[in-house]
Write a structure and sequence with these properties.
It contains 5 helices and 5 strands, in the order ααβααββαββ. It has 175 residues and is an alpha+beta fold. Helix 3 packs antiparallel against helix 4. It is globular. The protein starts with a helix and ends with a strand. 30% of the residues are buried.
């Protein structure tokens, strides 16, 4: 996540015991192409990573959240010509904009973070406290699921030379 990773994840530490950012006991990252098939790849990457960390029992909840975060990034955060619908990108020879999935584990918490090139707020007007008024919508429920299945979630714009944002979800791990 670049050199601004600890700054970017500051909201994760609010209200939690301090964590030394260098004390991450595991981290893994993968670039995802600007195609909806990338969601399946993100779930596979998550399964493999959680298995390596001995966290198989958390896969269902974490995979659901990862799927929603990656889908949102592909659907809403990539430029129209990026090919998220299955196309091959703009055809200009430039690399496709990508979404990155990061998984980070400490002894008592797991963070899923999805980086995308958009600086727009995720979910637009989403607010967990307004669940009732949005329950009939055909789409736009992904962040409701993220809110329901993770212990906390949020987003943070990238700083420095990086552009875009990171949307993260926190899962507390019980020893």
């Amino acid at each position: 996540m670049g050199t601004n990773g600890s700054t970017m994840l500051e909201p994760l530490r609010q209200g939690l015991p301090p964590v030394d950012p260098t004390a991450v006991s595991g981290s893994a990252s993968c670039a995802l192409p600007a195609r909806f098939e990338a969601v399946r790849g993100a779930r596979s990457f998550t399964r493999s990573t959680l298995s390596q960390w001995g966290l198989d029992e958390r896969f269902d909840d974490v995979a659901l959240v990862v799927s929603e975060l990656v889908t949102n990034a592909l659907r809403h955060a990539l430029p129209e010509d990026a090919g998220a619908g299955g196309g091959s990108g703009s055809g200009s020879g430039e690399p496709e904009p990508t979404v990155r999935l990061h998984l980070m584990r400490w002894s008592t918490r797991l963070v899923c973070a999805v980086r995308d090139p958009s600086e727009d707020r995720p979910g637009g007007s989403f607010a967990p406290e307004r669940t009732q008024e949005n329950c009939d919508l055909e789409s736009g429920r992904g962040l409701f699921l993220v809110d329901a299945y993770s212990d906390s979630w949020g987003w943070h714009p990238l700083a420095g030379r990086l552009t875009g944002k990171v949307v993260w979800a926190l899962f507390m791990l019980h020893e």
